[in-house]
């Protein structure tokens, strides 16, 4: 599903962000990327949705390799991924329904299917009653649920989440995390960057730790690995 | 396409102030260009009116037979440069002189002024070299005593026309470049104001073409509205000039249409460049 092979990433201004990072996320897996701020967690996620290219090494996501791809392939890949951010990234001037519909419309979904699909997605994230609310009228947790509904719009194979609970209180964090667990239980792999170690500890999912751009721990190979995905979904599909 | 059109129209509703600012900026840029165009158009018309008076006058010797002048009129009329040829008899020359000189009309006696052949030239053949060449071809007739075409005046007029054309092209280009820069910056502002939306569109898998389409439509609409508004402003300015300063001409309908289409094209090109540059960066 996602494979990092000896990935290095440097930025002209800030220098080395990642050094020789290799790991693999299989279909249906739930994987945490942890580490302190500035460790390189967000860079890993950006490499996953091809927002960045590795300086060295190869990133392969759902069959698309960073070593050989055309720009036109990137939108197609992103339609197979769901992306969630700490700051929600909702369109402030559109209501909840329109924010979710937007993700379907940009992929050319038939207009007749957009409405019913949006209703189902909002019901799934528990926001069926707030379809016409504007983002600013919602709590942080609710806004994140809208962002998750949008991320799920195109039936992603992987949900990539960058500190999705970073702006939320504990109660909202629990709710959002449970939502991720439910999504994962239905077969969607989840790759979540977080520095909330309590959450990671409680969840008991596979954990990759990054520090100063280096992968210092992977519970899958260093012990303590407890698969979070359904057993039949653990094989790599690549 | 329907979605792109909807997004483009929604952009006007979501950011009415910014949209109005874009349209107004485009309108005033094109209005400045249009005012210059009006000045250039009226100078050109004035020069054309003066040029219409470029004329070669060949004075006919006394006693020239009517057959000879009539044959010459036929020959000269067949010159490709000639727009019209006519014979002014001694009597007609005297009448005209008396008419033009008013109170001094009685100083002329019968038969004092010679008959002449007056040749007017077609547009495009009124430059000094052509006028001189045609005059030389007429001069060869035996009965031609003298030939005049105001050589110095024709040369001055030609120089003035050249200067006006050069200044027109240089100023027109400058105005056009300034308009393009202003319009480009205005549209770039609109693109930057929606940078977040563009980023989100790309994250959910929108292609560059999909992202670009609403901006192109928006730029086209703003350009068209700006062009139309510029035309209305130019018309109002001309109405004021006509009333208080001097009678001047307005653009032909097709020139007005060209102005609006130019606005639309500038809006489209400005959007294409701005959004293209933005997409390359993100």
Question: Could you walk me through the main structural features you see in this protein, from its secondary elements to its overall organization?
Answer:
Chain A is of the alpha/beta class and 238 residues long. Chain A has 2 domains: 1-80 and 158-166 and 186-238, Rossmann fold, CATH 3.40.50.300; 88-155, no CATH class. In chain A, 33% of the residues lie in helices and 26% in strands. In chain A, the strands form 2 sheets. In chain A, strands 6-7-8-3-9-10 form a 6-stranded mixed beta sheet, with helices on both faces. The radius of gyration of chain A is 17 Å and the shape is globular. Chain B is α+β, with helices and mostly antiparallel strands. Chain B folds into 2 domains: 2-49 and 158-281, no CATH class; 55-148, Alpha-Beta Plaits, CATH 3.30.70.3040. Chain B is 72% helix and 9% strand. Chain B is built from 9 helices and 4 strands; from the N terminus they run H-H-E-H-E-H-E-H-E-H-H-H-H. Chain B is elongated and about 95 Å long. The two termini of chain B are 24 Å apart. The model of chain B has no long low-confidence stretch (mean pLDDT 85). The A-B interface holds A 49, 71-72, 75-79, 83, 89-91, 93, 102-103, 105-107, 150, 153-154 and B 3, 14, 196-197, 199-208, 210.
Number of domains of chain B: 2
Q: Radius of gyration of chain B over alpha carbons?
A: 30 Å
CATH superfamily of the largest domain in chain A: P-loop containing nucleotide triphosphate hydrolases
Topology, number of strands of chain A: 10
Spatial strand sequence of the major β-sheet of chain A:
6-7-8-3-9-10
Structural class of chain B comes to alpha+beta
The low-confidence parts of chain B are none
Outline of chain A: globular
């Amino acid at each position: 599903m996602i494979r990092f092979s000896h990935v290095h990433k440097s930025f002209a201004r800030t220098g080395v962000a990642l050094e020789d990072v290799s790991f693999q996320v299989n279909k249906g897996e739930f994987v945490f990327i942890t580490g302190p701020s500035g460790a390189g967690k967000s860079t890993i996620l950006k490499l996953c949705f091809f927002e960045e290219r590795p300086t060295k090494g190869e990133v392969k996501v759902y069959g698309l390799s960073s070593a050989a791809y055309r720009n036109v392939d990137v939108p197609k890949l992103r339609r197979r991924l769901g992306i969630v951010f700490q700051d929600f990234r909702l369109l402030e001037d559109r209501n909840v329904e329109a924010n979710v519909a937007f993700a379907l419309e940009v992929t050319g979904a038939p207009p007749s299917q957009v409405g019913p699909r949006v209703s189902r997605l909002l019901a799934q994230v528990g926001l069926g009653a707030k379809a016409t609310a504007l983002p600013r009228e919602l709590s942080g947790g609710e806004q994140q649920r809208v962002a998750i509904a949008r991320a799920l719009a195109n039936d992603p194979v992987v949900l990539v989440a960058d500190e999705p609970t970073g702006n939320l209180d504990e109660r909202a964090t629990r709710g959002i995390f449970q939502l991720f667990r439910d999504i994962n239980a239905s077969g969607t792999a989840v790759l979540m960057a977080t520095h909330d170690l309590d959450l990671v500890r409680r969840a008991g999912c596979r954990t990759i730790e990054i520090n100063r751009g280096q992968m210092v721990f992977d519970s899958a190979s260093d012990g303590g690995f407890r698969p979070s995905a359904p057993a039949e979904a653990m094989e790599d599909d690549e | 396409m329907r979605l792109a059109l909807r997004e483009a129209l929604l952009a006007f509703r979501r950011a009415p102030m910014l949209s109005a600012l874009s349209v107004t900026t485009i309108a005033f840029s094109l209005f400045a260009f249009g005012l210059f165009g009006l000045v250039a158009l009226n100078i050109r018309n004035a020069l054309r009116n003066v040029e219409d008076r470029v004329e070669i006058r060949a004075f006919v010797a006394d006693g020239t037979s009517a057959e000879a002048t009539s044959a010459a009129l036929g020959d000269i009329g067949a010159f490709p440069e000639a727009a019209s040829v006519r014979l002014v008899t001694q009597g007609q020359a005297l009448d005209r002189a008396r008419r033009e000189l008013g109170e001094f009309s009685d100083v002329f006696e019968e038969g004092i002024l010679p008959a002449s052949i007056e040749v007017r030239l077609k547009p495009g053949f009124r430059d000094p070299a052509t006028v001189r060449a045609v005059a030389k071809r007429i001069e060869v007739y035996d009965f031609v005593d003298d030939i005049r075409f105001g050589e110095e005046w024709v040369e001055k007029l030609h120089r003035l026309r050249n200067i006006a054309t050069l200044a027109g092209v240089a100023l027109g280009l400058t105005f056009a470049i300034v308009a393009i820069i202003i319009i480009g910056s205005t549209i770039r502002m609109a693109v930057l104001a929606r940078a977040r939306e563009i980023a989100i569109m790309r994250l959910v898998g929108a292609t560059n073409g999909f992202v670009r389409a609403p901006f192109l439509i928006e730029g086209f609409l703003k350009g068209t509205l700006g062009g139309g508004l510029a035309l209305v402003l130019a018309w109002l300015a001309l109405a004021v000039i006509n009333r208080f300063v001097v009678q001047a001409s307005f653009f032909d309908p097709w020139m007005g249409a060209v102005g609006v289409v130019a606005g639309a094209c500038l809006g489209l090109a400005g959007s294409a460049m701005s959004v293209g540059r933005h997409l390359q960066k993100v």
